[in-house]
């Protein structure tokens, strides 16, 4: 039997794999903290009731759990990417420096109860999404998206918000929910600032599916064939001829930064990623490869 949570907007989670979450701060309270830190002049208050344990709150907002359901919850394994049903292209739903392969499981919030919510505006939702995305905490980002009510008063505005759509795509990628990822990227046009990250997710998701189908890692020729079979949608592509190599202006900027500092720290990698439209992982790999080439050239000239 499959259960659709009230906030899961089409993602079906089998009853057998639901799991109780240990007591933790309400994602709504965390979101209020984020908003207060980004907008100190407009303070918000947390909701009057907070989740204290699965299916319970300080004023008993939820009482729909059954004893049989709780028995399943207490003994269920964590949710892995393959547990998600890919036949429901939900419209909701990426870094811990953006992993190229979504191998790390993310626990989906329990579909048994609705988290208490504040009436966040679309702008506030976008701010929280951007902050959590930049922090690299994908699990908290997923929990925040799942906490949003289905009948949000600004649902139309949320479905047009690039920050929210990008967050949904990131979570879909990291949970292995690739059909949803593709649907989001194909149905909504994104600005250039988001292209690099979204293109990387599009390609890596298709590589991951091809590797799973073949049962082996892909070589350069295999990846080329995957790119030809699944070209970038125009919604995340500016029309320039795209190859697996970086554009010249991107390489030029990378070389300029390399001359200043061949060993950029994570903060500088994120800054450079934002400036080039790449991911921090791609930036790190470029610097690593460039250092290796320089060392090889130095040894050859001895």
Automatic annotation (TrEMBL):
<keyword id="KW-0217">Developmental protein</keyword>
<dbReference type="GO" id="GO:0000978">
    <property type="term" value="F:RNA polymerase II cis-regulatory region sequence-specific DNA binding"/>
</dbReference>
<feature type="compositionally biased region" description="Low complexity">
    <location>
        <begin position="57"/>
        <end position="77"/>
    </location>
</feature>
<keyword id="KW-0371">Homeobox</keyword>
<comment type="similarity">
    <text>Belongs to the SIX/Sine oculis homeobox family.</text>
</comment>
<dbReference type="Pfam" id="PF16878">
    <property type="entry name" value="SIX1_SD"/>
</dbReference>
<dbReference type="InterPro" id="IPR009057">
    <property type="entry name" value="Homeodomain-like_sf"/>
</dbReference>
<dbReference type="Pfam" id="PF00046">
    <property type="entry name" value="Homeodomain"/>
</dbReference>
<feature type="region of interest" description="Disordered">
    <location>
        <begin position="268"/>
        <end position="302"/>
    </location>
</feature>
<keyword id="KW-0539">Nucleus</keyword>
<dbReference type="GO" id="GO:0000981">
    <property type="term" value="F:DNA-binding transcription factor activity, RNA polymerase II-specific"/>
</dbReference>
<dbReference type="InterPro" id="IPR001356">
    <property type="entry name" value="HD"/>
</dbReference>
<feature type="compositionally biased region" description="Basic residues">
    <location>
        <begin position="80"/>
        <end position="103"/>
    </location>
</feature>
<dbReference type="GO" id="GO:0005634">
    <property type="term" value="C:nucleus"/>
</dbReference>
<dbReference type="InterPro" id="IPR031701">
    <property type="entry name" value="SIX1_SD"/>
</dbReference>
<dbReference type="GO" id="GO:0005667">
    <property type="term" value="C:transcription regulator complex"/>
</dbReference>
<feature type="region of interest" description="Disordered">
    <location>
        <begin position="37"/>
        <end position="103"/>
    </location>
</feature>
<keyword id="KW-0238">DNA-binding</keyword>
<feature type="domain" description="Homeobox">
    <location>
        <begin position="237"/>
        <end position="297"/>
    </location>
</feature>
<protein>
    <submittedName>
        <fullName>CLUMA_CG005259, isoform A</fullName>
    </submittedName>
</protein>
<feature type="DNA-binding region" description="Homeobox">
    <location>
        <begin position="239"/>
        <end position="298"/>
    </location>
</feature>
